[in-house]
Known about the structure:
By secondary structure, this protein is mainly α. It has a single domain, classed as Tetracycline Repressor, domain 2 (Orthogonal Bundle), CATH 1.10.357. The chain has 6 helices and no strands. Helix 1 packs across helix 3 and helix 3 runs parallel beside helix 6.
Amino acid sequence: xxxxxxxxxxxxxxxxxxxxxxxxxxxxxxxxxxxxxxxxxxxxxxxxxxxxxxxxxxxxxxxxxxxxxxxxxxxxxxxxxxxxxxxxxxxxxxxxxxxxxxxxxxxxxx
Length: 110
């Protein structure tokens, strides 16, 4: 429930502007951990809503079309579009845990 609310706020206002101080306090997590968890949750939803259904489509152009159509449909359900595009814009020039997660899907490799 916390991640769903966080994802909605992030898609609407941008990940950096999510008011998650109360969420962080309630869950005993840092803001950066919550931001990464929101992105991880969004990735899970994206995979289940976009990739999995497309894999059931014939390989080649039909599958690519399914991926694009599913992706557009998924992003249109978010308040202000794709959370990944917004987050990449917000964190492109910042060092740290959230940017590393966006780049590597986890903490920065050694």
